[in-house]
Amino acid sequence: MTGETNLSQTTTAGSFSGAGLACRRGGRLVFTGLNFKLTAGGALVLRGPNGSGKTTLLRVMAGLTPSAAGTMSWNDKVIDDPDAHARNLRLITHLDAIKPALTVSENLSFWMTLWNKPDDQRLQKALQAFDLSRLASYPARLLSAGQRHRLALARLLVAPAPLWLLDEPGNALDTASRDALARAILAHRAAGGMVIVASHEATFVSDGETLDLGLFTPKTVVHWSDDESVEAAE
After folding, report:
1. What is the pLDDT of residue 185?
2. In what order do the strands lie in the sheet with 15-25?
3. Is 131 helix (H, G, I), strand (E, B) or coil?
4. pLDDT at 179 over 50
5. By Cβ atoms counted within 10 A, which residue in 14, 19, 39, 233 is the most buried?
6. Does domain 15-233 have CATH number 3.40.630.30?
7. For residues 116 and 7, what is the distance between their CA atoms, to the nearest angstrom?
8. How much is the pLDDT for 202?
9. What secondary structure does DSSP assign to 15-62, as a single string?
């Protein structure tokens, strides 16, 4: 397998940061006072025990879950346009968002045209990178769990963006597929892209920084209503 990617012509990686972030889930304060900063070519690995908020933080970073406090910035400017922010990132989770009635190739074409112009060469490289070429004409409903996950990861290559947010990206992957993902991440960073990975096991990045969410867990279990402030809970 080979991995290759490049940044979208419509987006530019510079820096992505968060300051004083807090988030609640089910009425409970999950983390508070969290800070991070990532620059072009950088990687951040999220660590922490189950329930520490790794997936929640990725959703906050993606703009899908609102933070209870703090701000996030892109190129040192506070993010205030969710649509513009969405164009700068790609989020891969265990929810693969694959359309079962479409073929493997048609699924990738859909995501490509959603974010970029059609490019058959880019499509073929993405298929090759994750060993999907022989499955290109297969209906997605016939894929195994590992094949579905490889298809989801291939979206990173057909619809490039500066920031990749990856939640346990090694799940259901064999050794060859994990190596392909590591190469894709390496190429993305070499082109100036940024990667944030939440993983209990392999991180798929080298020389990345680590953010331990356990350090930002409130000292006491706090439950609070909509009108209670984060500051009161800290």
Report:
1. 96
2. 28-39, 15-25, 69-74, 77-78
3. coil
4. yes
5. 233
6. no
7. 11
8. 65
9. EEEEEEEEEEETTEEEEEEEEEEEETT-EEEEE--TTSSHHHHHHHHH
How far apart, in whole angstroms, are the C-alpha atoms of residue 21 and residue 67? 6
What number of other Cβ atoms are within 10 A of residue 204's Cβ? 24
Chain centroid to Cα 144, Å, comes to 22
CA distance 168 to 96: 12
Q: Where are the beta strands (DSSP E) in the chain?
A: 15-25, 28-39, 43-47, 69-74, 77-78, 89-92, 163-167, 194-198, 209-212
User: Based on C-alpha coordinates, what's the Rg of the chain?
Assistant: 18
Give SS3 for 95. Answer: coil
What was the pLDDT predicted at 51?
85
Of the candidates 4, 37, 39, the one whose C-alpha atom is nearest the C-alpha of residue 162 is 39
Are 174 and 149 a contacting pair, CB within 8 Å? no
Token pair listed for 149:
């996950």
- Environment class of residue 149 by beta-carbon count within 10 Å: exposed (0-12), middle (13-18) or buried (19+)? buried
**C-alpha–C-alpha distance, residues 194 and 89, integer Å:** 9
Between CA 109 and CA 181 the distance in angstroms is 20
Residue 220 has pLDDT above 70, yes or no: no
Domain map (residue ranges) of the chain? 15-233
Which tokens go with 170? 């090694």
Report the C-alpha gap between 33 and 129 in whole angstroms: 39
Say if residues 92 and 166 touch (Cβ distance below 8 Å).
Answer: yes
